[in-house]
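Re: [ENG-882] Designed sequences occasionally contain unexpected residues at chain ends

Forwarding the minimal case from QA. Structure tokens:
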């Protein structure tokens, strides 16, 4: 819940929002993520720092049921706490989520939903190979998001990263 209650995360997800994060919204998102696993058999993972075990944020794949016209799609998403921005963790986690989807779900594409002002997440989506598409209205946030798409199936299989010598 700390991720959704982080003011920097809140602002990245809702740049037009003012004031402190909505703690009720944070609690509801946490419960939603837990329920999603029960209902769909996949969902967001809690991301944890290897060295400290500290929760970094959420990364994974989920059905965006809050946008009815996209509720059958699979969204790759990430929300990391501010101290962990700029380390490549969203890109690494997003790639792992794409690989998991490719291995376990019969998909022609995956999507990412990003607020147009969230330039950091737009850059992550670009690094992962997503292309900008149409806007969609997020009923929970009451704002339009940009839909980014990645497909066809062969695009979902990410090449193995070269290993460093030694």
């Amino acid at each position: 819940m700390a991720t959704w209650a982080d003011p920097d995360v809140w602002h990245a997800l809702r740049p037009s929002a003012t004031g402190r994060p909505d703690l009720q919204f944070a609690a509801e998102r946490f419960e939603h993520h837990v329920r999603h696993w029960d209902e769909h058999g996949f969902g967001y993972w809690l991301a944890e720092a290897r060295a400290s075990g500290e929760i970094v944020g959420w990364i994974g794949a989920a059905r965006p049921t809050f946008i009815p016209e996209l509720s059958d799609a699979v969204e790759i998403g990430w929300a990391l706490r501010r101290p962990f921005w700029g380390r490549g963790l969203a890109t690494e986690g997003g790639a792992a989520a794409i690989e998991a989807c490719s291995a376990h779900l019969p998909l022609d594409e995956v999507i990412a939903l990003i607020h147009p002002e969230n330039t950091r997440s737009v850059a992550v989506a670009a690094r992962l190979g997503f292309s900008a598409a149409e806007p969609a209205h997020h009923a929970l946030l009451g704002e339009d998001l940009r839909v980014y798409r990645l497909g066809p199936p062969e695009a979902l299989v990410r090449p193995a990263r070269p290993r460093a010598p030694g």
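QA comment: On inspection the terminal residues look reasonable. The mean pLDDT is 83. Proposing we downgrade this to a documentation issue.
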